[in-house]
Amino acid sequence: MSHVKPVLHLEDIVKTFPGVRALDGVSFSVMPGEVHALMGENGAGKSTLMKVLGGIHQPDGGAIFMGEERVVMSGPLEAKAKGIVFIHQELSLAEELSVAENIYLGELPRKSFGRVDWVTLREKTDAILKKLNVAFNARTRVGDLSIANQQMVEIARALTVDAKAVIFDEPTASLTDAEKVVLFDVIADLQREGVGITYISHRMEEIFKITDRITVLRDGQYQGTLETAETNEEAVTQLMIGRKLDLSRNPSHHELGEIALEVRGLSCGSLYEDVSFHVRSGEVVGFYGLVGAGRTEIAETLFGLRTPSHGTILLEGEDVRLNSPADAIAKGISLVPEDRKGQGLVLGMNCRDNMTLPQVDDLKAGPFVAEGAEISIFDQYRDRLDIRTPGWKQKVGNLSGGNQQKIVIGKWLSMKPSVLIVDEPTRGIDVGSKSEIHKLLRSLAAQGYAVIVISSEMPEVLHVSDRIVAMYSGRVMRTFTSEEVTEDSLIQAISGLGGDKAA
Amino acid sequence: MVTVSRREIGSMLAKQGILIAFALFMIGFTLANAKFLSVDNVFSVVRSSAILGVMALGVTFVVISGNLDLSVGSMMSFSTIVVLDLHDKIGPALAIPAMFAMTLCLGAFIGFLVGYLRLNSLIVTLGMLSAIHGLTLTYSGGQNMDIADKEGTWFSVFGQGAILGVPTPILMFLSLAALLGLVLAKTPFGRKVYAVGGNGTAATFSGIKRARTVFTCYLISAGCVAVAGLIQASRSLGSQNTVGQGLELEVLAAVILGGASLMGGVGTIFKTVIGVLILGFIQNGLLLLGLPFYFQFVVTWIIIILAVWLDIAAKRGKLWSPIA
Question: Taking CB atoms and an 8 Å limit, are B205 and A335 in contact across chains?
Answer without folding.
Answer: yes
